[in-house]
Amino acid sequence: xxxxxxxxxxxxxxxxxxxxxxxxxxxxxxxxxxxxxxxxxxxxxxxxxxxxxxxxxxxxxxxxxxxxxxxxxxxxxxxxxxxxxxxxxxxxxxxxxxxxxxxxxxxxxxxxxxxxxxxxxxxxxxxxxxxxxxxxxxxxxxxxxx
Length: 146
Prior knowledge:
Elements: H1 11-23, H2 28-41, H3 46-53, H4 57-70, H5 72-76, H6 90-101, H7 113-122, H8 131-140
């Protein structure tokens, strides 16, 4: 299989990676990527690297690709992973908990997650919120609906 992304390290890059791998004070993923780059620089195939490091072929390919396209630091690092923005701020969460602990609406024995979500929308605390988001927010708190 022909290598699409050739890794050729400069002396400075090689030295930096060797220092990184010998320190033992770095994150495991960063260390693994450094090892991939060092082995690729020695002319090892992806299959050989996979066998030596027990790394996935996809990780090896992507590490080579990032190095070729964006450079050493991009190949070693991960872009931050962010979840979606919070639906409720602290005030909204407090209102949710207070509502969940209050008397249920007329004709109901207790609050359901959907009723709580609907109440938050009715009170214009949020534009939209799912019953699952309400459940997860209540699960995080130490309050008990029972």
